[in-house]
Amino acid sequence: MKKSGSKGKAQRREEDRGSRNSRAMLMLTFFLSALFLVFTALLGDKSLFELQRMRMDKQSWIEKNTALAEENTILQEKIQAARKDPLVMEKIAREELGLVRENEVIYLFDPREISEEKDKGPK
Fold this sequence. Notes:
Blueprint: H1 2-43, H2 48-84, H3 86-97, H4 111-120
Helix pairs in contact: 2-3
């Protein structure tokens, strides 16, 4: 009878060891899974750093879009003014296209000669 009792204790000890081993494996699995999730959240393609970079990019694009919208509005106003006012149209034609009026004389100066005259000073 005593032998059967000692077998029961040994069996229980063995079960306790097995139970502890399975708890240790479970804890190790949990720890490794948590570690994997942390690294993935910080360093993966869809990480927190990538999310922050994308938010900054989005803000940059919003600012560029706003600037372009303002520039577009200004250009639309210039187009409307040029269509309605002949003086604005003439100014644009003179400045951007280099057009001149009939019988108008244009004087062209060599910029190098002008700078040389400035360097010599008054005579």
